[in-house]
Amino acid sequence: MQETPLCLRVVHFLPYAMADSNTTNFTNPSIFILLGIPGLEAAYIWISIPFCAMYTIAVLGNFTILFIVKRERSLHEPMFYFLCMLAITDLVISTSTVPKMLSIFLFNSREISFSACLTQMYFIHSFSAMESGILVAMAFDRYVAICNPLRYSTTLTNSVVAKIGLAVVLRSGILALPYPFLARQWPYCRTNIIPHSYCGHMAVVKLACAEIHISSYYGLFDLFSEIGMDVFFITVSYTQILRAIFRLPTKDARLKTFGTCISHVCAILALYIPDLFSSLTQRFGHNVPLHFLVLIVSVYLLVPPVLHPIIYGVRIKQIRGRLLQLFTHKET
């Protein structure tokens, strides 16, 4: 009920908006208009500063992880291969969204072609699911390392790691394919103005002048089949891990063993807590201002890519040590 007044109000701020954005009977418009964060236009310059800083940290941090693992042969192990996969995923997620956000905040460049919008939608959904799948693979790595340490090297061989990575990519890539296809099939005859800073699936299909139950149902199916199953497998893995830890004879041994899981647990929390908060806010926050909802969803995409390299850079001594060596050599 509140979308129409918002869109009509914003059109006055968009002199470059397409003339046919307020007409009817146009299907698959060639251009969408991303509003960014409606209601906070006056603060876009200030909002761009933390977004730019977070994006810089995400890019530099994840590239540093990739560089260190590639250079340090002692890190050529399954856990660090999975960490590299996570770093690549974080780079793709942040790079597919933040540059466009910054162009809106800094240059008022709100237009995005329909094809580019669908491409961004696919990358966001597929790589977000890949991120979750990689965390499951890392949970399995911790399970084997703690519960079956003598079989670790024979269980997680390079070929097995590659197959796990391929399975994660295929699952996420295939299950994300319906999103752009469903969005493309709907007729858009109301407006081409998206009150968000990026092309999320529901943000786009809500503009359609048709019943979009299929899109809604598929989104729920994808959520439960991927994130739901991933959370289940992670829970099962850590249940077995905790049982193995509590069977250790001394407190020091239990703390030392659990300490090898701290980085992974923090990475899980960095992904799922913002995801849960964002989902609950969007579904039940009917009285929450639109600009707050859009801001939360926009920040959510950046939280894991920023926190993951920080978490692993601080917690894993091999990476921390290699970083210190790099900085020491530069100083000398």
What does this structure look like?
- The structure is a single chain.
- The protein has 332 residues and is mainly alpha-helical.
- It contains 13 helices and three strands.
- A three-stranded mixed sheet has the order 2-1-3.
- It is globular.
Radius of gyration: 22 Å
Structural class: mainly alpha
The best one-word shape is globular
Q: What oligomeric state is this?
A: single chain
Strand tally is 3
Biggest sheet overview: 3 strands, mixed
Beta-strand fraction estimate: under 5%
Q: Strand order across the biggest sheet?
A: 2-1-3
**Average pLDDT reading:** 84
Number of helices: 13
Order of SSEs:
HEHHEHHHHEHHHHHH
Distance between the termini: 64 Å
Helix content: over 70%
Uncertain segments = 1-25
Task: Pick out its properties.
332 residues; mainly alpha; globular
